[in-house]
Amino acid sequence: MLEAVRRKLFIASLIIAVIFFLLSLLPHLMGTSGSTQIGPDRMRMTLGVLLCVFLGLPMLRFFAAVQAVILGAGGISGEIERGSLPVTLARPVSRAQVMLGKWLGINLLLGGHVLTWAALLWASLFIQTGEGNVQLLYGALPILLYPALFSSLSLLFSTFTSPTLAAALTLICGGIAWSEGILKMIARLPLVDLPLLERVGHACSFVVPMAHVDRWTDRLLGDLSPIVFAERMGRPPSQTAAAADLVYVALYILAVFGIGLLLFHRRDI
User: Fold this and answer.
1) Where residue 87 falls among pLDDT bands split at 50, 70, 90?
2) According to DSSP H, which parts of the chain are helical?
3) Please, are residues 256 and 156 in contact by the beta-carbon 8 Å criterion?
4) Alpha carbon distance 62, 116 (integer Å)
5) Whether residue 78 has pLDDT greater than 90
6) Tell me: the pLDDT tens digits for 116-125?
7) Which of 8, 24, 46, 215 is least surrounded, with the fewest CB atoms within 10 Å of its CB?
8) What count of other Cβ atoms lies within 10 Å of the Cβ of residue 172?
9) pLDDT tens digits, residue range 6-16?
10) Best CA proximity match to 72, nearest among 34, 29, 46, 101
11) Residue 263, burial from CB neighbour count under 10 angstroms (0-12, 13-18, 19+)
């Protein structure tokens, strides 16, 4: 069953990769990738660059997270329901080995997907601009943490609830974290000005540290970063990446995985 899911995800990843590639090539196919400039004179970007950075990378994050949830949510409870986990544990295999094996399997699989998608985005940009733009590849590296975050969280929920509920709880946590940007934007509106709402938004970012990862993506993108583009358009500077962001992400993954392992050990099978 799990192998069938993985095969379907592999096929889905190939389809997503082709869609990524074709969408990012649209300006080139329409003959506008090098001629259409967007943004003020002090910071102009071609349409091809904007599609790869502002559309391609967010799509990459989204699909990496969704696939991690799909695989992780049924990692423990799904096998318990099918009766395959008791058979596995009857062998000389510990629960820690089972949990770690599933986590590593998910992340190795999805890590390959992320790198493949990023390579296709880079290839598209190279075809359109004739430039290396290695910053795009560097910027994709932190996105490898998205599967780690969401697989850890979904495996945690999978230790004590059904696959469907585990997926729902994980997506809810992701939605809370994602709301940070919206809450901060509302709080900074001229007629609103609610510092408390901005603090709530900041607190939401710690539920799942996607924003911490995204800051490093923006930093590694360099001049291709949406943050640089926004600041040169006259918008206020955003919070920059720091080593503390990566430390928190690492501690978050370890803590969530550890709690999940503890719950797994206490669950009767």
Assistant:
1) confident
2) 2-24, 26-29, 47-50, 57-73, 77-82, 84-90, 95-129, 134-140, 145-158, 163-187, 195-204, 210-221, 226-232, 243-266
3) yes
4) 15
5) no
6) 888 888 888 8
7) 8
8) 13
9) 667 667 777 87
10) 101
11) middle
Q: Are strands 37-38 and 45-46 parallel, antiparallel or unpaired?
A: antiparallel
Pair of tokens at residue 161: 């609830």
The DSSP annotation for 125-151 comes to: HHHHH-S--HHHHHHHGGGGHHHHHHH
* Measured CA distances, 185 to 87, 91, 117, 210 (Å): 51, 53, 30, 17
Band (91; pLDDT cuts 50, 70, 90) = confident
Q: Report helix angle 163-187 to 145-158, nearest 10.
A: 130
Q: In residues, how long is the chain?
A: 269
CA distance 99 to 93: 11
Tokens 């291709």 label which residue?
224
Q: How far apart are CA 59 and CA 139, in angstroms?
A: 14
Q: 199-236: b or e for each residue (b if 16 or more CB lie within 10 Å)?
A: eebeebbebbbbbbbbbbbbbbbeebbbbbbbeeeeee
> H/E element holding 43?
none
Q: Using an 8 Å Cβ cutoff, are 164 and 172 in contact?
A: no
Residue (of 143, 103, 93, 69) closest to 260 by Cα position: 103
